[in-house]
Amino acid sequence: MRAAFTIAQRDFRGFLGTPVGWIAACILFLVSGLLFSIVTSQMLTRGEAVDPVADIMGSLIGFLNYINIFVVPIFTMRVMTEELAQGTFRLHAAAPITSGEIIGGKFLGVMFYFTVICALLLVYPLFAAVFAEPDFKVLSSGFLGMLLNIAAIAAIGLFVSSLTQNAVISYLGTVFFIILLLFSGYRTGVPEWYQRAVNLLELGTEFSRGIMKTSSIAIYVAIVAGFLFLSRLVLETKRWRV
Amino acid sequence: MIEVKDLVKLYGERKVLHGLNFSVGVGRVCGFLGPNGAGKSTTMDILAGLLGPSDGTAKVCGLDVVTQTREVKEIVGYLPDNPPLYKEMTVVDFVTFVAKLRKISSADRKAAVDRVMTDCDVTDVASRLIGNLSKGYRQRVALCSALVHQPKVLILDEPTEGLDPNQIVLIRGLIRKLAKDRTVILSSHILSEVQATCDDVIIINQGQIAAQSSLADTGSSKPSLLYSFSDKPENALKWFKERTFVSKAEVFADRQNCLMIDFKDDFYGDAKTANLAQVNNQLMQQGFGLAFVQEHRTGLESLFFNAIKNQNSFEGAQQ
Questions:
Q1: CB contact under 8 A, A94 and B50
Q2: Do residues B114 and B148 make contact, with C-beta atoms less than 8 angstroms apart?
Q3: Contact B12 A97 (CB under 8 A)
Q4: Please, which residues bridge with residue B64 across strands?
Q5: How confident is the model over B135-164, as pLDDT tens digits?
Q6: Between vectors from CA B236 to CA B231 and to CA B239, what angle results, nearest 5°?
Q7: What pTM was estimated for this model as a whole?
Q8: Which of A33, A172, B211, B230 has its CA 20 to 30 A from that of B244?
Q9: What is the dihedral of CA A160, A4, B77, B74, to 10 degrees?
């Protein structure tokens, strides 16, 4: 387990040592900042009574959940596909650590980064707190939903990235995989539980309204565990495949 | 120390290793020599536990690479041909990271990192980014990462590839120093490289061992002599053939006006130089126009080319 933290720590510092981490942070902050000001000013000009959490943060988190489908795969691509292509993966493969520790470390590294980003996004509700009284319980539920969403995307991303050494295939593959997963829920005739389980955006919205269901958390845990397990299998069998 | 038996590796339908057999003892530097695509890197990947063999066994220090992979990885230091380096890290951070991956306890870590960085002579660039270093330094940093856990077995895949002559000499010296108390396997497709650093040589071609020998044998103690003349040496050839102490005299085809002479065994020995001086004096008196004399050793080069040539013709005959 120590090895996983070592890898996570290195990857996290790696994100900040290369432009990728900063550019992604810029995009996320720029988008969320614009959205925050647009939503706030629109609501104020309409003269509606504004609930800083449900209205402003709700739409902000909803939008970020959507954007993250395109941002998180950049990071999973970097930590898996690029390492496989550049040969740095061999550093891990030659060390006496398990595939589980490698995958766990890569996953945690991505999560560290986005946890920091999410923590910095708290600036908006804190700003809102100057003028109103945001409900921090609902707020933390929304952030938890966003983190769970990121975790699910990261796990799927790691799985797709471990299959290829081509960065473009890895990135597009992850994005399309997630989009297909989302769309597959809208097909007629699919069971209701499936509809609910694959609609990550809807689940995220639920969280941002303060609805924390055990079943929703279970869905996320299942997705993360399932795809991390699959990625571990891919790494484990790399020795025997060609 | 390293024992390989009937090692086979298939990449899909393609057979890359056709049943390798060899062993390397403690404290030896063993050179893998072979043309590109011969199976050197595949063999090394298997020994380092990165690849699984399709058939056969490989043991490192008595540990099987398939069933005891983790233990094998603990005692092996591996430098792949494309050195795995994080370019955005500083040298000291990178080596420390590898030390952590290798599970060196935090109490010993700093000492281990310092020691290996001194050994590989990279202390002067410790706080620089790896991406900004020259190729020679990068190679040495990669070597640090292979050595930080003090492995008993060191596997180096083309360690001097792409370095300048100065850096090659440095790396060679380092490998010799490291070999004192561990087993080293290094691969190369450069003959002089192996000649300069290794005790044993294994020549691999098309997934098979084409030849295997100790380098002490290849440099024979009874060298042939090459006599170069200013003119066509027919008379000299005739003269040599008449001497009783000459076992073989023939025209040396690779060079103009040159003869290759082998002497009989009793010619060598303690009186070798005196005997040679006498022959040269006689040659001078004959007035053949001798230009110069030099020793000709049947070295690694001929071993290499013969081995590869023999094998190719053998396979041609089979088909």
A1: yes
A2: no
A3: no
A4: B59
A5: 888 988 999 999 999 999 999 998 887 788
A6: 165
A7: 0.84
A8: B230
A9: -120
DSSP code string of A62-102: HHHHHHHHHHHHHHHIIIIIIHHHHSTHHHHHHSS--HHHH
Residues in A 164-223 with any Cβ partner in B closer than 8 A: none
The nearest alpha carbon in chain A to B76 belongs to A94
Q: How far apart are CA A190 and CA A184, in angstroms?
A: 8
The nearest CA of chain A is from the CA of B72 a distance in Å of: 8
For the cut 90, the answer to whether the pLDDT of residue B208 exceeds it is no
Query: Where does the pLDDT of residue B294 fall: very low under 50, low under 70, confident under 90, or very high at 90 and above?
Result: confident
Task: State which residues form the domain around A83.
Answer: 2-241
Name the residue among A14, A90, A98 with its Cβ closest to that of B86: A14
SS3 for A53? helix
A144 contacts A150 by C-beta, under 8 angstroms: no
Share of chain A above pLDDT 70, in %: 98
Band of the pLDDT at A162, cuts 50, 70, 90?
very high
Cα distance between residue B66 and residue B48, in whole Å = 10
Q: Do A17 and B52 touch (CB under 8 A)?
A: no
Per-residue 3-state assignment (H helix, E strand, C coil) for chain B: CEEEEEEEEEECCEEEEEEEEEEECCCCEEEEECCCCCCHHHHHHHHCCCCCCCEEEEEECCEECCCCHHHHHHHEEEECCCCCCCCCCEHHHHHHHHHHHCCCCHHHHHHHHHHHHHHCCCHHHCCCEHHHCCHHHHHHHHHHHHHCCCCCEEEEECCCCCCCHHHHHHHHHHHHHHHHHCEEEEEECCHHHHHHHCCEEEEEECCEEEEEEEHHHHCCCCCEEEEEECCCCHHHHHHHHHCCCEEEEEECCCCCCEEEEEECHHHCCCCHHHHHHHHHHHHHHHCCCEEEEEEECCCHHHHHHHHHHHHHHHHHHHC
Q: Is A97 on the interface with B (CB under 8 A)?
A: yes
End-to-end CA distance of chain B: 37
Residues of chain A contacting B83 with CB distance shorter than 8 Å: 87
Q: Is A242 an interface residue toward B (CB < 8 Å)? A: yes
The 3-state secondary structure of B193-242, one letter per residue? HHHHHCCEEEEEECCEEEEEEEHHHHCCCCCEEEEEECCCCHHHHHHHHH
Distance from CA of A7 to the nearest CA of B (A): 8
pLDDT at A34: 92
Judged by CB atoms closer than 8 Å, whether chains meet at B97 and A6 is answered as yes
**Inter-chain CB proximity B48 and A94 less than 8 Å:** yes
Structural domain total, chain A: 1
Among B51, B84, B88, whose Cβ lies nearest the Cβ of A91?
B84
**Chain B residues with CB within 8 Å of chain A CB:** 11-12, 48-52, 70-71, 73-74, 76, 78, 80, 82-86, 88-89, 97-98, 100-103, 145
